[in-house]
Design brief:
Low-confidence stretches: none
Number of strands: 6
CATH topology: Cytidine Deaminase, domain 2
Distance between the termini: 27 Å
Length: about 160
């Protein structure tokens, strides 16, 4: 038996004001997208903004449904939209944030497991890292240089290839 350890690194900023301009703008667009989310049941409005290598930005927000599994997260809305419009164009970064009428969100919002799985697929396709910028309504911002920090022992297409 061998004991193994996985190291995960993040950058932590005190606020979005301390981010580089490109990341600050991406997060601002994600916040704008969150304000337009369709969340009549949870009142938890999530927004995302995806930056492609060609400079295009795609927005997403959560889309709820009375039959909860039928909805979709903000991250996947933006990622799938970007990929549908520009298939094969690498994703450089995604910003994620949330607002709520029910509670204050003072901690960074992280993507759910399903969104992490989708992100790792796009990162693997690009053979490059996708930066993830995560914030709440206010307070600190977390930045990961790669999706692998969020899902280090990931399942991917290599597991499906017959050898």
């Amino acid at each position: 038996m061998h004991k193994r350890e996985i190291k995960i690194e993040f950058l932590e900023y005190e606020s979005s004001e301390n981010l580089p301009d490109v990341e600050k703008d991406l997060l601002k667009q994600a916040k704008n997208a969150a304000s337009k989310a369709y969340a009549p049941y949870s009142h938890f409005h999530v927004g995302s903004a995806v930056l492609l290598k060609n400079g295009k930005i795609f927005l997403g927000n959560n889309q709820e449904n009375a039959a909860y599994p039928s909805g979709l997260c903000a991250e996947r809305v933006a990622l799938f939209s970007a990929s549908a419009r520009y298939p094969g164009v690498d994703i450089l970064a995604i910003a994620i944030t949330a607002t709520s009428k029910e509670t204050s969100i003072n901690e960074p919002i992280t993507p759910c497991g399903a969104c992490r799985q989708v992100m790792i697929e796009y990162e693997n396709m690009a053979k490059g890292n996708i930066k993830i910028i995560m914030s709440g309504e206010r307070g600190k911002v977390l930045v990961s240089e790669t999706v692998k920090n969020l899902i280090p022992l990931s399942f991917d297409g290599n597991h499906l290839i017959k050898k």
